[in-house]
Design brief:
Elements: E1 3-8, H1 15-24, E2 28-31, H2 32-40, H3 47-53, E3 58-59, E4 62-63, H4 65-74, H5 77-100, E5 105-109, E6 124-129, H6 132-141, H7 147-156, H8 160-166, E7 169-172, H9 176-193
Parallel strand pairs: 1-5, 1-6, 2-5, 6-7
Antiparallel strand pairs: 3-4
């Protein structure tokens, strides 16, 4: 039976880099964002249920995220209807992955782990963390969103300090060295206790 480690953290905290470090150390890694891309892709499991709710959001038999964003902007209650379709599909994808893995530790990279109540399905939770200033620098350096868009996303996420308080492990991603050190500590602790 694989050990289920939830990996979470707010936008720009270094979660993807940290997930890669776990993969390099022999862990299986499931990525929630990648699962949503599969579900939204051509022929994905979310396409037909979302077509029933938002026919205009289906283009070339795939879900258009841009069209869904427009629908949510026009009607904030649309997000709840989308989540009611997508969250169970994501959970099913995650469960199927967990059943198939043979790794001793499976890392579940879930940005909204606490927000969706998924921490109860994990054996432990690790949170990635940097200062608010470093977080803002990283996100804005990507050039994909404005400061206002970033602040809007950050406002919707559970505060980092609260995530850290609820976690079993905190991984400092200020540098690659601190992140590697903390990942090694997490793995050593889990494997020692297993």
């Amino acid at each position: 039976m694989t050990f289920r480690l939830g990996l979470t953290g707010s936008i720009g905290m270094g979660k993807s880099t940290t997930a890669s470090m776990f993969a390099d150390a022999g862990c299986a890694v499931w990525d929630a964002d990648a699962a949503v891309h599969r579900l939204y892709g051509e022929g994905g499991a979310a396409v037909e249920p979302l077509r029933a709710l938002f026919p205009e959001a289906i283009i070339d038999n795939a879900v258009s995220r841009a069209t869904l964003k427009t629908a949510i902007a026009a009607d904030p209650s649309a997000l709840k209807r989308i989540e009611e379709v997508v969250h169970p599909l994501v959970r099913a994808d995650r469960a199927a992955f967990a059943e198939q893995t043979r790794a001793d530790i499976t890392v579940f990279d879930i940005p909204l782990l606490f927000e969706t109540g998924s921490e109860g399905e994990m054996d432990a939770v690790a949170v990635v963390k940097v200062s608010r200033e470093t977080q803002a620098e990283r996100v804005l350096a990507r050039g994909t969103m404005s400061e206002a868009e970033f602040e809007a996303i950050r406002a919707k996420q559970m505060p980092s300090d609260e995530k850290c308080a609820r976690a079993d492990f905190v991984i400092d991603t200020t540098s690659l060295e601190t992140a590697r050190r903390d990942v090694a500590h997490v793995l050593k602790t889990i494997r020692r206790e297993a």
